[in-house]
Predict the structure.
Amino acid sequence: MTTRERPRDTRARIQQVALDLFAEHGYEKTALREIAEKLGVTKAALYYHFKTKEDILVSIFTDSAEQIDELIEWARAQPPTVETRREVIRRYSGLMRGNRKLLQFMHENQPTLRDLPIGETMKHRMAGLFEVLTDDGQSLPDQLRGRLAVFAISFGTMVGMSDTKHSGDEVADAAVEVALDLIRE
Amino acid sequence: MTTRERPRDTRARIQQVALDLFAEHGYEKTALREIAEKLGVTKAALYYHFKTKEDILVSIFTDSAEQIDELIEWARAQPPTVETRREVIRRYSGLMRGNRKLLQFMHENQPTLRDLPIGETMKHRMAGLFEVLTDDGQSLPDQLRGRLAVFAISFGTMVGMSDTKHSGDEVADAAVEVALDLIRE
Amino acid sequence: MTTRERPRDTRARIQQVALDLFAEHGYEKTALREIAEKLGVTKAALYYHFKTKEDILVSIFTDSAEQIDELIEWARAQPPTVETRREVIRRYSGLMRGNRKLLQFMHENQPTLRDLPIGETMKHRMAGLFEVLTDDGQSLPDQLRGRLAVFAISFGTMVGMSDTKHSGDEVADAAVEVALDLIRE
Amino acid sequence: MTTRERPRDTRARIQQVALDLFAEHGYEKTALREIAEKLGVTKAALYYHFKTKEDILVSIFTDSAEQIDELIEWARAQPPTVETRREVIRRYSGLMRGNRKLLQFMHENQPTLRDLPIGETMKHRMAGLFEVLTDDGQSLPDQLRGRLAVFAISFGTMVGMSDTKHSGDEVADAAVEVALDLIRE
DNA sequence: GATGAATGAGGATTCATTCAT
DNA sequence: AATGAATGAATCCTCATTCAT
């Protein structure tokens, strides 16, 4: 008797493979056929676990989105000091390191997200993040710096992969340093 | 004699409409049918002016790419001082303001570009830009700052549109200020 | 001890729900999923009770078909008088009032039935009915009248539902009157 | 040089073949692939001429529907006498003889039509026809007779095909006789 | 300088059906 | 008596591309 391929957690495996391909080739260019083939199942199997292609994407976002929401909530409960904002940056970096692929997808598939309801949701979330990182009393450049800090984290976290000289975490750490420096009074 | 619809410069009009749609909805999701409809011509007409869909995209990039190449060439001919780098930032900002849509497209369609020859070309170009903005002697955070400066320009130039309180140019100017500040010794 | 959901007669409930949906949306457009959902069971459950989708349909027909067969047999055993034919009409009307949905299905899904063995069976049955209601000695219009009498019953029985001014039975009674009038020497 | 297959009137040929198949096997069961194959073209060719499968159906209805509308309009402009109604029946029969397949489709695909906008349209049309053939002063059986007269025409026109002893037109003529007899004061 | 008609490849989705549990 | 997971075949439809005119 041969050991059977574990028939469990197919749902989770679909999400993983899908995210990989969505991040690499883009949502539109990724055919469900590819996902299915890579998993050794039929296209129809995907439809057993998810209602639509979009649903796969949404399900991927939903989980990690919660974490960001919690971070924003936490920040709102704190005094709006520079130190709070710096802590937000640090925690955001921590969150993103575990979600590199999703991060990449978010940054590189804006047109897709713009046309999807989930995109609107993410847009609101990012707006919330920007809100806790800046305030209207700041100069325009400083407000830009606050927003750029978020991008610094993203950029550092994503770029790590393609750079051979430095490890992913080294780059991500450097990104935090740069980002913290962008948060001004 | 009836007044003729000016049939002039159809080629250029195709490029304009195409870029608009590519930037808004993404390259993959934009059908040639849409471009044709928006122009009031047939799909086949597009094929009179361009060999393929990809060719439309490439032709759009080619022109403005030259400007960047020239900027890089110019920078390489200068002494690698901070002031040179700052001037590169300033000139890059100037270039980009005239190419907002293309800039948006470049940032938001990475997966598409990754799969296309033109993407490889652009990647090299950006690498060149990074090269003149940083050097190996710098600390990792400072190298990141150099790269981030480019993104600051992009971000500032693109974001301008969706922000009501500040004009596009105000934001772009602020972005230059932030970017210049990111260029270190 | 908790009160059990009555698991009784699932088979019959499937037939009921299926007939409702088949009649309303047509056999082809009715998915087994819909039937299952409406019953609160799984598709697979349907397959415990019936071998195929077609089998559900056949099982629905089989029961009430017997009654028609008996009516035809009875008619054949009587003298072929006008009065016999009128009695057939009356009895047929009685039969159909208890099977409105099935009647509707039969009339509105001819293409489906034509492609299914059960359709051939029903066709023979109707031919038998026509046979006892007409004879070759009649004029062509009178033969048509005999056949039309059957449709008058069907029409009257089915239409009753959508007409608010008159009750279903009033219309069905009127249909009998019209049908009887169509049976000629 | 060989004589080319006439590349013209593809649109009309699609409608013809489609109606044949829709009438024979039903709308749902008829795959666009079948229509295309029967015509020796690609599925995509159908989509050049029609926007959707439903659109093919609608386009088929639209033409002959006009004729019925005109008939109803004409009837409404006449005095509501028995003779007017009888003339409506005669003209309706004439109309239907040229549209046997469409007539068959209408009668045998009610569930499909019920779910389609075009079905609602046809329902209104038939209601209009019934309106000019009956009036509220009549007894219920006589109102039913008026409606049944329409079905007599349909039935007679359609049945002709499957009956070998009598020609289609003989049966249709008989149907008119029966139908006229169903129109009462 | 452009169109009308068509193709071939491929997309997402749905369905009836199966089978081990 | 019924489910959970999956399949294979089919569906409608869209797209980039071609080519004779």
Summary: Chain A has one domain: 7-182. The CA atoms of residues 56 and 65 of chain A lie 14 Å apart. Residues 31-33, 43-44, 47, 52-53 of chain A lie near DNA strand E (CB under 10 Å from a C1').
